[in-house]
Amino acid sequence: MIETIKRYWRAISTPSKYYSLGFLTLGGFIMGVIFWGGFNTAMEFTNTETFCTGCHEMRENVYEELQSTIHFTNRSGVRAKCSDCHVPHDWTNKIARKMQASKEVWGKIFGTINTREKFVAKRRELAEREWNRLKANDSLECRNCHDFEYMDFTWQSQRAATQHSTALANGEKTCIDCHKGIAHHLPDMSGVEGWD
Amino acid sequence: MKSRMTITVLLGLALTAGALAQNVATTRDAALDVEPNPPKISRVENDDVKRKRAYPMQPPTVPHKIDNYQIDTNANKCMSCHSRRRTEESQAPMVSVTHYMDREGNFLADISARRYFCNQCHVVQIDVDPLLDNEFEDIDDLLRAARK
């Protein structure tokens, strides 16, 4: 028994003694592809709506609210799913966000928002976290679809065109400054700039 | 004789029509056991142009879309443009001062709870033919007619 373990250990610690360079290179390459592919597939799975709404906390609160908004149902049938707004699209930022989101696993295990009452009580805190994130990255997730470069003000209502061609154009404001609560219900807004 | 009968019939018809016009039981254009085709959903006016008020105390109508505006204990989307504090930035008309009064006539710092739900009085407009004729007359028209 001990002998067998020792033999395996020798092969693992100095593989080039036992296996050919070609085998190790090719093997490493194939394993790399499998690992990398597997990792990304798993990560992509955590970006799906099935995964997000797998827990009742999401399904019965935020997902329910999303369904009546324009980001879920609209004339053209293009819609945003959870990760479109809540997860950055490019890789480095996505990994960073996923690591932050590991706290949500903790929250799930210990039932931080496992009842409607707990969720409602925590809504302001959760909303503020998202507002701050979008404020800090200049509403990146909005802009992934709503690209300012391609906005045609002449198709917007006069009010919208005025705001977008001034405050938004000169960078004074970003999407989330005015468009809070467009996909989910708002928390108690007392003290929030522009609402109070 | 014949002409008198015609007049009677006409009068009768006119009276029936009048009675019908005054006592409208339903605006449903089909029998109860028939599912009528619903009218097309019309677009809400969104041109920001004020409409005339039909009488001085009429709550002004909303000249823009208000889809999904949240008005509840947590937030009032309307007031994020129309409140006193917000109008400088938004350039929207401020809600009238009566909305800042309680029922004793005292002025409050914030919108009164009894005036909080905007769309109880202020509604969006759509460009459609009314189902019933509106016989409302503007007070100015009545005065002008009386003066003649």
TrEMBL record, chain A:
Q: How does it sit in the membrane?
A: Single-pass membrane protein
Task: Describe the processing and modification events after translation.
Answer: Binds 4 heme groups per subunit.
Q: What is the protein's name according to its record?
A: Cytochrome c-type protein
Enumerate the Gene3D superfamilies for this protein.
Di-heme elbow motif domain (1.10.3820.10)
Q: Which family does it belong to?
A: Belongs to the NapC/NirT/NrfH family.
Is rRNA-binding given among the entry's keywords?
no
Say yes or no: keyword Ribosomal protein present: no
Q: Which residues cross the membrane?
A: 21-39
